[in-house]
Amino acid sequence: MEELAVLVAWRLDPPPVNTHVRTKAGPPPLARGCSVLDDEDAIWAADEMDEARRREAKAIVEAQGRVLAPFWVDKYDREASKAWDRFYRRTSVAPYKDRHYLDVNFPGAFDAPRGVALEVGCGCGSAAAPILRDHAGWRVVAIDFAASAVERLRARRLDRVEVALCDVVKDALPCDGVDVVLCLFVLSSIAPGALPGVVAKLGAALKPGGRLLFRDYGRYDAAQLRFGKGQKVGDHRYVKADGTACFYFDLDDVSELFAGFDVLSLNLDCRQEANRATKTRRRRVFVEGDFRKRRD
């Protein structure tokens, strides 16, 4: 009877819910308008890009100086694969956590009992691993133009994955007729002039009705605003100290790039991320889109 009384009491007055329980998408954010530093348990908080923030960011970008001479821009683009190869050889895998948010951010993309996903710029397999783990009937073809990234992914010995060294700009893709293409933080590293050809190639590799999932760095992200003079290689495109380049997209850029697809969703993801050690926050901006290949 005592146990029954405890159960009844629990039903009538359940214990408080922990609002920061980690899910596939991570802990839920704080409400918009709050600082991520207001709650010591929060990892991130929803943010917004208002006109005041945009004006301030534009002023910072203008103060970053002019675009480098064409010689240097061409040099960085020619040597991109070498720079990324050095990056993966030098960088620990630890910071690259698996992308557990895919099913949450792109609902239904992997609902079919079986399918094939092409991951472009696979890196260490942070997208391939959760897809293979959570969707037993799916296979992944993972490509990267950095040999060290391919080596690291192969070393993970994942089942149902084919890993190939492939430059999506220059090389033929190792597959076609795939159900899903993943472009996660990869198109920003490609020279903007090459992007229309890359997207056309990826679209040709998709089945009619297949989906292309995109997530990348957004205009006026905190990382963009940290660059100084001598690092611009184009409008909103920069080269880092290690020789790798990054472009920061806005919604219009992405809409134009994927104009040949049906748009299932396209949004700006603004958030604050906390650095508890320094008691500071970073205001991040990402662009995320879910696109479907049109049927004939």
From TrEMBL:
It comes from the Eukaryota. Residues 118-212 form the Methyltransferase type domain. Pfam families: Methyltransf_12. S-adenosyl-L-methionine-dependent methyltransferase. This is tRNA N(3)-methylcytidine methyltransferase. GO terms for biological process: methylation. Belongs to the methyltransferase superfamily. METL family. SUPFAM superfamilies: S-adenosyl-L-methionine-dependent methyltransferases. Keywords: Methyltransferase, Transferase. The lineage of its organism: Eukaryota, Sar, Stramenopiles, Ochrophyta, Pelagophyceae. Gene3D superfamilies: Vaccinia Virus protein VP39 (3.40.50.150). InterPro entries: Methyltransf_12, METTL2/6/8-like, SAM-dependent_MTases_sf.
